[in-house]
Write a structure and sequence with these properties.
Elements lengths: L2 H18 L1 H8 L2 H4 L9 H24 L4 H27 L3 H23 L3 H5 L2 H20 L2
Helix pairs in contact: 1-4, 2-5, 5-6, 6-8
Length: 157
Amino acid sequence: MNNTTKLILSVVCTVALGLAGGLFTAPEIQGWFSQLAKPSWNPPNWLFAPVWTALYVLMGIAFFLIWKTKSVAYTKQWAIIIFIAQFALNLAWSYIFFKEHQPGWAFVDIVVLWLAILCTIIGFSRVHKLAAWLLVPYISWVSFAALLNYTIWQLNA
């Protein structure tokens, strides 16, 4: 498989899987989520989709860089396993928060997700430095999202 195909597959699959979380999110925005107390610094709802899409594109490019790089098999495999694990935690957060209406448990998930992203950045840095740097906006946004999640949880306890 050539690198162009790998890049397209990496980005399309990552964005598609990421947007799958929207299946849990979208139906709740106008319903349950709109009824929650939120902090004054809560971003407008329309901002989340483009930010997450951009982050998923960056994640897809980062994954492509790992996939195409010739590296020690163990190091590369470990980086990919951690990437998949953090992605599963990312999707789980949408389900727990929006589908199950459990901000407290979602906060637990997002803390573990943050740690998994950090591990992914470390793992990616051992294979391809740029791939690791491409995940910095992601961990930054998840840091903000964790604070927002916690605040919403506390405001609605």
